């Protein structure tokens, strides 16, 4: 068998030391090159796959952060509303049960259930029986004007305010020179009220009204309505608990 020839190359470094380099056989070089290329090709897909995986995770992470932020906002708003209602309920209870107020108020506002249709008309701010009106309890009673809708105490024959009766809510139609107010309901069948209203008998000024809300209040006042309201509150609390439990998990 013929011996494989090896090519030897000599180089001289700056220090004058000879270094000998042997060129491997041509067959071995080709085999090593061919075996190295498949390994490089096998690693390339892994790199691309890793890059695509990282890119695919970004949208899901951003979506999760957005949902978490939205949930925190909704939860904060819900807690704020709940706190507002709890404070209002406590305030009303104290005003009604302890202070013995005929018309309880919270945050300077009272809600009244309209019993008659004396204000059922076509004017701005008119309302009907079954609606709920909200009145501001701290108006400047000496400087009211024509068109304002006020809630006031009726007076008896001696001119004393009857605060043990339900108040009346009518619109001011005229201001007398002595500072008293002439009132009348918006219903076309009504005429001017007999007794002018003194500023000290003004309970409040109507802010706005919610149509038909009085029927809901009357329904809640019954046993069945109260039971449904408690059940609805329990359902809301249960849904909040389930959502919170999922968040913990």
In short:
With 249 residues, the protein is of the alpha+beta class. It is built from 3 helices and 8 strands; from the N terminus they run ββαββββββαα.
List the helices and strands and how they pair.
Blueprint: E1 8-12, E2 18-22, H1 26-98, E3 109-113, E4 132-136, E5 149-152, E6 168-175, E7 181-184, E8 202-210, H2 213-221, H3 223-248
Antiparallel strand pairs: 1-2, 3-4, 4-8, 5-6, 5-8, 6-7
Please give a handful of descriptors for the protein shown.
249 residues; alpha+beta; 6-stranded antiparallel sheet; 43% helix; elongated; disordered N terminus
The radius of gyration is: 43 Å
Task: Count helical runs.
Answer: 3
Taking strands numbered 1, 2, ... along the chain, how are they ordered across the largest sheet?
Answer: 3-4-8-5-6-7
N-C termini distance: 76 Å
Global geometry: elongated
Share in β-strands: 15-25%
Helix/strand class: alpha+beta
Number of strands: 8
Low-confidence stretches: 1-22, 46-54
Helix content: 40-55%
What order do the SSEs take from the amino end to the carboxyl end, as H and E?
Answer: EEHEEEEEEHH
What does the largest sheet look like? Answer: 6 strands, antiparallel
Mean pLDDT: 78
Describe the protein.
This protein is α+β, with helices and mostly antiparallel strands. It is 43% helix and 18% strand. It has helices spanning 26-98, 213-221, 223-248, and strands at residues 8-12, 18-22, 109-113, 132-136, 149-152, 168-175, 181-184, 202-210. The strands form two sheets. A six-stranded antiparallel β-sheet has the order 3-4-8-5-6-7. Strand 1 (8-12) and strand 2 form a beta hairpin. The protein is elongated and about 70 Å long. The model is unreliable at 1-22 and 46-54 (pLDDT under 50).
């Amino acid at each position: 068998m013929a011996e494989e020839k090896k090519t030897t190359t000599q180089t001289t470094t700056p220090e004058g030391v000879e270094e000998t380099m042997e060129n491997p056989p041509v067959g071995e070089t080709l085999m090593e090159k061919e075996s190295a290329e498949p390994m490089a090709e096998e690693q390339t897909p892994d790199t691309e796959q890793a890059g695509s995986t990282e890119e695919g995770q970004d949208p899901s992470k951003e979506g999760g952060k957005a949902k978490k932020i939205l949930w925190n906002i909704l939860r904060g708003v819900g807690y704020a509303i709940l706190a507002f209602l709890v404070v209002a309920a406590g305030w009303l209870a104290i005003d009604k049960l302890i202070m013995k107020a005929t018309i309880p108020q919270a945050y300077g506002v009272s809600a009244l259930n309209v019993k008659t249709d004396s204000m059922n008309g076509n004017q701005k701010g008119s309302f009907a029986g079954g609606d709920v009106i909200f009145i501001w309890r701290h108006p400047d009673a000496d400087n009211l004007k024509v068109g304002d809708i006020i809630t006031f105490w009726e007076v008896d024959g001696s001119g004393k305010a009857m605060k043990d009766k339900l108040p009346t809510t009518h619109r001011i139609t005229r201001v007398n020179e002595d500072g008293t107010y002439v009132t009348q309901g918006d219903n076309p069948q009504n005429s001017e009220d007999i007794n002018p209203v003194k500023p000290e008998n003004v309970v409040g000024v109507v802010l706005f009204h919610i149509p038909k809300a009085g029927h809901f209040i009357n329904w809640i006042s019954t046993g069945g309505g109260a039971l449904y309201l408690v059940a609805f509150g329990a359902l809301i609390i249960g849904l909040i608990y389930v959502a919170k439990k999922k968040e913990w998990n």
